[in-house]
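Dear colleague,

Thank you for sharing your sequence with our group. We've completed the structure prediction you requested, and as agreed, I am returning the results in plain text so they can be pasted directly into your records. Please verify that the sequence below matches your submission; if there's any discrepancy, let me know and we will rerun it promptly.
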Amino acid sequence: MLDILELPEYLIHRKWMNHALELARAAGNAGEVPVGAVIVNTNNHLIAVGENRKERDQDPTAHAEIMAIRAASQILPNWRLHDCTLYVTLEPCPMCAGAIVHARLGKLIYGVDDTKTGAIRTVLNIPDHPASNHRLKVLGGILESDCREQLQNWFVSQRQQK
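Please find the predicted structure tokens below.
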């Protein structure tokens, strides 16, 4: 059996982003904006997952990234996640970008840019801001078209239902 650490890096990224896409699909099926998140450690072992739960929990902070960060912090147990990578299907918003920086995540990998509220590279750049107390490694565009298509299809479906 091939160890995941022996795979080329891009295949590892695709594997975890596909997992995040599955979580996003489940969130979309539950009436949430379809965003999924996965946190893995340096050995590429799954630590925690999250999906949007704002509607189900009636909690404006229940974004996929926040749910995954909360779970990882409890599982490790350490709020400093510097040895972890967060995979998320959509570029994080300002709230999530702040949480990612405060959690000291080692790396963020996301699928598609958010041209309205993206706070990593698109609209804002919180990780590289002088006020940021942590430098975050970022890679965007992993399974970008799959992530974009999933979001667009969900929004089209929601509009048709109204």
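Summary note from our side: The longest strand covers residues 46-51.

Kind regards,
the structure core
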